[in-house]
Design a protein that fits this description.
Number of helices: 5
Largest sheet: none
CATH architecture of one domain: Orthogonal Bundle
Helix content: 55-70%
Order of helices and strands: HHHHH
Structural class: mainly alpha
Length: 143
């Protein structure tokens, strides 16, 4: 028998955050847009859905905003029950990588971005060459 306990047995996952008005609209109408634009890729399809959502009248948008508000109320109710029963949900464990940190998966060093330094050097070289050109043109004019 294993002495390790599963995280899922200790505490269930907290309720998921609710979708906003746009996502509710997009999810409800995605199939219709797929039929309307069968050759569109995901990004192009999303753009069409976004434009359609922007074009909705205030009344039509309010319908989706009301649905989003109801979903938010339901989420807050479920979250309150979750907190009462299990305590605060765990914070997200995602951390942003800093340049030069070890890559956790491969154990390799992540290279630092040196593009800024090289750009500054190239800018200085360009300035220097422009000055040389300006000086040579002045010298030619003086002769």
């Amino acid at each position: 028998m294993s002495t390790k306990t599963s995280k899922s047995k200790d505490k269930p996952a907290p309720p998921k955050k609710p979708a906003n008005a746009y996502f509710l609209f997009a999810n409800a109408n995605r199939e219709e847009f797929k039929k309307k634009f069968p050759n569109h890729k995901v990004g192009e399809l999303s753009k069409e859905i976004g434009e359609a959502f922007k074009a909705l009248s205030a009344e039509e948008k309010k319908e989706w905003e009301d649905k989003a508000a109801a979903a938010k109320e339901q989420y807050e109710k479920e979250l309150k029950e979750y907190i009462e029963k299990y305590g605060e949900p765990p914070k997200s464990e995602r951390k942003k990588k800093k340049k030069g940190d070890d890559d956790e998966k491969s154990g390799k060093k992540v290279k630092k971005d040196t593009s800024k330094k090289s750009t500054k050097k190239s800018e200085k070289k360009e300035e220097g060459s422009k000055k040389k050109v300006a000086n040579t043109t002045k010298a030619k004019k003086e002769k």
